[in-house]
Design a protein that fits this description.
The protein is an all-beta fold and about 100 residues long. About 0% of the residues lie in helices and about 55% in strands. The strands form three sheets. The chain has a four-stranded antiparallel β-sheet with strand order 2-7-4-5, with no helix packed on it. The chain has a three-stranded antiparallel β-sheet with strand order 6-3-9, with no helix packed on it. A two-stranded antiparallel ribbon has the order 1-8. It is elongated, with a radius of gyration of 16 Å.
Length: about 100
């Protein structure tokens, strides 16, 4: 939950063995929130008033997603955050 003024932004670290991640945040109430998703040097961001979906393809390893109040927003916003990361690519067995 984001709560003004004590908790206006939150960052969640996670790992992606493939470097690919998709994140979706949903909330009700119409407040404007902003979200940033990064894996390695690949970073994307977006904003919305009921939900935000982002996808990034970067370097395998550490990733972060941040969610924050947009400019001029106040109050308390409960939200759900869904993070999905595919497994690392499997190598094909050697052909006979």
């Amino acid at each position: 939950m984001l709560r003004y003024p004590d908790d206006i932004a939150t960052t969640f670290p996670f790992a992606s063995p493939s470097g690919i991640a998709s994140v979706r945040a949903l909330w009700s109430g119409g407040e404007a929130l902003e979200m940033t998703l990064g894996c390695g040097q690949a970073v994307t961001s977006g904003a919305g008033t009921h939900g935000i979906s982002l996808v990034v393809a970067g370097r395998a390893g550490s990733c972060t997603v941040s969610i924050a109040f947009g400019p001029g927003q106040h109050g308390a916003v409960p939200y759900t955050l869904d993070v999905r990361v595919p497994p690392a690519n499997l190598t094909a067995p050697d052909a006979p």
